[in-house]
## 1
Amino acid sequence: MYYYFILQQRILSRKMEALGLHPVLGYILGVLLFLGLSFYLFYKTTYAGYIYAATGLSLVLSFGEKERNDFLKTTFPLAIYRQVRAAENGLRVLPFVVLLCCKTEFLLALGLLLGALALSLFNSGSRLNMTILTPFFRFPFEFTTGFRKYWLLYLIAYFVAWKAIEVDNFNLGAGSLAFVCLLAMSHYALPENDYYVWMYNCTPRQFLLKKTATAWLYLSTLTLPLVVVLSLFFWDKNWILFLILGLGLFLIGAMILAKYSAYPREMSLPQALFFGLAMWFPPLLLIVMPLFYKRAVQQLNTYLQ
Amino acid sequence: MIQIENLSKNYGSKTVLKQINFELEPGKVYGMVGENGAGKTTLFKCIAGLEPCSGSISSPYPILKNQLGFLPTNPYFLPKITGSEYLQLLCNARNIPLSNFAEKNIFDLPLSQYAETYSTGMKKKLALTGILLQKNDFFILDEPFNGVDIQSNMLITAIIERLKAAQKTILISSHIFSTLNDTCDQIYVLRGGEIAQKVEKQDFQQLDEEMRQFVLGDKVESFHF
């Protein structure tokens, strides 16, 4: 079991190296980023504890993936397998638990830890092996896959928006809309197998247009109900909602360009940092996007021409 | 006609394919045989344009890959995508206006289930259905019979015959010699990254015997059963 965790640490270090980052620097940056985002969250909203606990639990869910667990079950005796699952779930939520304790949210911290340990007893998809319906079947791939992976998070975002109307909190509603946009963007974060680019019968420009048009259509499908309902209840601030939607559409287009500018590799750390900076200050995207586009066309040419 | 001239491929200092030359005519089925690691899959990927290589590939099409249906040895399926969504994705990619796949489902696949949950043989059949729907002119089928049941084997053989009759060009690799014997007009033997032999249909039995001798020799005797 000890060797298993050594291997996990090696895999993490290799991933950082693949991103062009020295592992030691990576760990330091990771801790600083985690602390920075955590304090920012607690500074910004009174619901931070709940958001924090939900985030911790959602991170643990990925450990329940069926194939991964089948491998672990065939590798370790059952008792050790249970220990591995409990240990990795516990370790993953530990930073969240510690920070919740620092914020004197002891009950939430305990709930999170117990929830994570309880989740180690279940595998995702092992019992509920049914096809989740999506409205994204006509142009499948990113949104179809993403929606089925994160449908629970989408549901939570819709629930939060409903609560925002109930408690008359516009910021909460706007936040849920922004969250849906960010979640949709995450569907484009990783590069797909090269067969799924190679098979297209079009130029790189047409390919990027197709991808962007589909992303815009499907992001609008997901967000318009939120925008319309929130607009009805917060009529005087509806321009902010449309601004968030517009920014979301703009950013998802930029995300597609950024992804294919590094294709077939994942975005390198400098690229990701540059993109993150541009997200923080969107006008920067006007400079970055032509560069990403040019590079994406070059990268896609290898597969499409 | 598709012409492959002086195709070579290196991975660093290791040469995987050396000066490969051959031609593929419409309405013919070509077999490619060789041991594991002989370079068959790499050669197929080079022809498809999925691997960079040196040499030239000429064809009557402006972009060969747009007319190519490539069935990889282990088709990769995106997570959480159903069989019918996979077919839809492949049709969309080639601008084929098709959305009802029920009558095209000749292998009786459970199209509403996630493709990643299919068995090896079902995955192969789904990938094959996909490239058939794309109406390609040229097919590269890497181990199409691998992991597939006998009934589907017969169906795939019949499909290849139909494709041949429709003047399509087909290049197949298989470790099951009898399937090549049934379907191919010519077989190329790839050994050490080179085309070692080109065999016509009338000499297939002799090739089978030669390969048996070459592969088996007295290796099994060393076990002393």
## 2
Amino acid sequence: MTHTISLTVNGKAHCSVVEPRLLLVHYLRDVLGLTGTNIGCDTSQCGSCTVHLDGEAVKACTVLAVQADGATIKTIEGMASPTSLHPLQEAFREEHGLQCGYCTPGMIMAADALLRHNHKPSEAQIRQGLEGNMCRCTGYQNIVKAVQNAALKMA
Amino acid sequence: MYPSSFEYYRAESVREAAKLLKQHPGAKLLAGGHSIIPLLKLRQTEVSALIDIGRIADLRAINGGMIGACCTYAQVAAAGGLPAALTEAASHVGDPAVRARGTIGGGVAHADPASDLPTVLLALNAKFHISKGRTARVVPAIKFFTGLYETALKEGELLVAIEVDAEARGTGSAYAKLENPASRYAMVGAAASVTIVNGVCTDASVAVGGLTTHAWRSKRVAGALLETTLDADSISKASKRIVKELPDDLLGDMHASADYRRAMSQVFVERAVTAAAARAKK
């Protein structure tokens, strides 16, 4: 049996008919075409699929689309307008916080949630806050620098 | 990865959830989904239906020591007035995104031998409030965890709350774990709660996880702590007892062998008891 869900994604209201087993990450990518959110490990560990659900960073591979009925979702596409960059995106560019870029959307969504909870995180707090996001290029030093840079920009 | 197909029902109350469970044999409950969704995706389990209890307001509140089953780890970690071991363990489950969705009730009902909360709740002698709709019962932690992914929950029942006592002056608790660096699951987890009266330990409770099929209480370590001043020497001596007390067949895998876990059990029990004692002495 299918279900009708209504949710707001990046400020736009959507109403869709979904199977219960459809994962939020597949809904975002395959139904709405928002392919900025990546699928990495698919086992709730790597954080590539991190999006905001009602303001909290969550792993979209471990949420059913039906669970997000009524929710407000923000993905990497909703961080800035097409002609500008979010301060976190700017900071990742300036500090070379990405190599292959696969983990970057998830890193930025997790970092944004982290900075909302803690405006001035220490290096250790940034590392702890991003512990659910893996960079297989192992570019963590510059990712941490990028978040520190963004914290200053957003202060 | 897609799970195989299932039906989905959203319950608005505990009674409705119990009714749906009765109507749909083979259904499982869904709260945060951080145990069941990965299992469904990996096709390690199949369900005919999921009954979503994640929006039932009664199950999402913390009132004193009564923690609704659908409270997230983040909620438990941020709540004041709960035993220190519980706050500590809840703030170290998985990572921030997992803690934002995963629930305490879902985690303990799943009863993964490597999860953190069962160990802590066993050390704290928590009470598990279970409902079947019209009837309810309370099960103590020592009887709740019964086996590998098995609990005292019976067909048609749901866990509604977990009750812990507030820590009085002179009582302290702590949790220490050797974690898998990727998943943060405990390869060895140790929880301790101790009470000091007039400088002497009058009550002690110690539990370990990640070692046996389910959270496991150590009687020998707790017994050896009693009547001591909980100084470093007596904690160290008492903690050594866990090594021989543990059963012969411990869990082991590519991340940590059974022998390594056994050796580490002593180290993490000592760390947990030391931290609990320091809190009790404050």
## 3
Amino acid sequence: MTPTRKRRLTIALFILIGAGSATSLLLYALSDNLLYFQSPSDVAVNDIPEGKRFRLGGLVQPGSVNRDPDSLAVSFVVTDGQENITVTFEGILPDLFREGQGVIANGSMLASGQFAAREVLAKHDENYMPPEIADALERAGHPTSGGTN
Amino acid sequence: MSSHTSFWKRCKTWFHRWGSPAWFYRTSGLIIPWLWAGFFLLAIPGLIWGLSIAPPDYLQGDSYRIIFIHVPSAWQSMLIFAVMAILALIGMVWRIRVAETLAMCCAPIGAAFTIVTLATGSLWGKPTWGTFWQWDGRMTSELVLLFLYLGVIGLQQAIEEPRKAARAAGLLALVGVVNLPIIHYSVEWWTTLHQGTTISFFGESSIDASMLWPLLIMAIAAKFYFGAALLTRTRNTLLLQDREKNWVRETVQGEKS
């Protein structure tokens, strides 16, 4: 390699290293703000003020869904296995919403310790399989739904 | 020993020949039909397999089938950026015009794959997640990839002299590479709405084999398409850049007669 080419290659590598480290530092500094949602445990630790909007993510606790028969109001418990938060919502839930499913609720905490959601999104996991296999797994005692990771 | 050195010499000569626009034009013209053939032979059965033969998903039903377009184009959008950066680096260090032109011709193709990725992701998101768009790490970083492609195209268009333009835009391509690990690891570093990685080349994939095969076929088809589109584009660009030169005159006369 000629000296000129060597010099150009070194400059290019320095540019790459410079851009890479600048970006890593930026992302590291912002890492808390880059979280798309908080888990119930995060909420328990961070003490988020009432009325501040954030996204709560976790699994819908089986057996916790209560639908109001006269309106679109619904309440359910979001859990991450350690902490639980009751979520209230009035509106249409996504098709994938069901017990045990991962959900993300956008809203704020109420004085009562409940979470008032303005929007509920379903989160699905990275597993794809035919229904027969999902049934077989279910029968073998490995629940398939959910997934917040 | 002498046969060994002559083999390497032959390889080196063959490689150097690609640097000549006239050789590039001729040789790529021979390869392009095969790349298109490979694309159609894989994409048509891959699409039929994915869209109608593969089983529905246990949770999402038939709506998951958009994965057979979405994931191959997402991989391709990132791969093309890496290819563009490597070609730009070669162009930058060795000042090879064919490499610079190849790098510049990657950008519109990569941008198209990024748009397909974002559009199909959005169409998939509405029935499953319940939203067309959210500013989570994966979606935002893929959108940044589109802007980087548009930046490379814009920078190149803004500078009149093609070689200077390619060098300036190549620099942006090189810097933009830092976004690729961000896209890939966004779903691991941060909490996102987008699910984690399904396909793992070094471990077990969390997709059933009956769905994985058509997905891989579509991914390879996307590579053939990229090869064919890139060579065609570069060929035409070289022809336009060299329109005053002898090799173009001779080629055009040869094709006419």
## 4
Amino acid sequence: MLRFSIEERSDWQQQAEDYGFHFHTMYGEPYWDESAYYRFTLSQIEKDIEDPTEEIHQMCLHVVDKVISNEALLTRFGIPEYYWDYILRSWQRQDPSLYSRLDLAYSGKSPAKLLENNADTPTSVYETGFWQWLWLEQQVDNRKLPQSADQFNSLQEKLIERFYHLHKQHPHWHLHFACCQGSIEDRGTVQYLQDCAHQAGLPTGFTYVEDIGLAESGEYTNLENQPLHWLFKLYPWEFMFQEEFGQSLTEDRCRFIEPPWKSILSNKAILPLLWKEFKGHPNLLPAFFEEDITQANETTLVKKPLFSREGANISIIQNEKAMMNTEGPYGSEGFIYQAYTPLPKFGDQYALIGSWLVNDKAAGMSIREDRQLITQDMSRYLPHIIVE
Amino acid sequence: MYDLLIDGEVMSEHKMKRSKKLRLDLMSKQTAAKVTVTPMALAIAASLAGCSSNEEQAQVVKSVADCVQNTSYTEEQCKVAYENALAESERTAPKYDSVSACESEFGANQCHQSSSGGWFMPFMAGYLVSSALDSFSRDRHYSPVYVYGGSGYNNGYVMTGNGSVVGRPGDRYVNVSRDTLNKPLPTVNRTISRGGFGSQAAAKSNWGGGSRRSSWGG
């Protein structure tokens, strides 16, 4: 794993406009950064990222199966009792999943370590599946990269296959896509997934989360009063469980992607349970619930809220003192502690690997870079290549 | 390393780790500039383009008198079929919050308030009777039809409650799918409230002035 500088494509901003990639720069700061790229060997990708990703996913599913009907654990996960049966039903029905992203600490020299599992609302899917793919193709054409350069990235292909499969399972269902108002990034992400579904032949629609209505029948509706029976939501389950319309979820008039059981998979409380079940696994870090913190031998721990997004409310604690923390609106639902592992540093940049799954298949990789040790929402996205 | 031909596609024997080919032409999107089409017009466009082999002929019956004159039903049977269709219309017709929203699709004076009150729907222009199953049954389903763009009988379309076009005004016989004839449509309900999702995002985006919030994903 090496970091190389490279000349940017002269017209990439124009192309970004043409392709509707409107969030390459946010709040005056670059987000997409092609002034450099990371290089991996095929063996690093296959042995250190791809295989462990699928294995970690299976371990996570194993833990979900333990939690899903265990009241004490569901309580520890901060999930309201009202939704326990609802979540269990979605698991027993095997409601299909679309995708996930595992965040990994990986330096190219030792096994990748799971930091967290973004299984409910993963973003940067467009930048990964399409935009960095296009970058590679064009930089090879420009002779800036060798002809043999490859990329760990079958994400778009696998998403379209997955949508095709879902369409065959439910040939008469329409899939509506939803995200919040006011985020260009989320709107772009959802548009991309809708495009993928469309390419797979699936009939689609879009509605903003805030515009969803509730009908007399208990069905959710779009602004045109059409019932929504199948909804992709780029909106966290733990938010929905707290909101006014959450109550009517349990009537099961609408199926969701990601499905309700992902509220367990994406919860950071899964990290201590993974460690309990698979203690010593090379891709796991020791992790503990707050009440078991005395079991930790590590001098440096990372304190994470159960439901944090984009690096908010995270502290790094050394010898019981916070040496670094990020602010944010999360944490009221409780915290877990995870052994600290440094992210690899290239120059003055820390790099974080995102490893993607479509259903249960490893599907590609993304890299975020930040000058800060805790990767947040303003970190930059860099492309990667595979060269032998 | 050499190329293999599988299913008409050239595949490299060395397995690539990335997508083989992406459809660039399908990727150009100007999200902000998307045209919005009213759903009924959209559904009509879709059903005009569609064509099904699973079709049968049906008679468009406009009234009890039309039924008595042009079907094998008795007057009593015609009344029952009409009442059935009317009840079905009350349940499944497209519904609107205002009379003007309804009239913008179905034409001036073509809408009425639903009998449950509160919202507006087009008048039933008639109902469908299968030509193949011309015998009366009290339990049979009679699909109501409406005239979309209904100012005058020369323009507009005859559609069922879900916006599927079956013919033009004045058509006595139309070809429709078996589902249209036999399957009741889902109940169209009035949306009683909106905005019940999204409050957590709104509350959390106020944190820190909301200036850096870029995504609710992660």
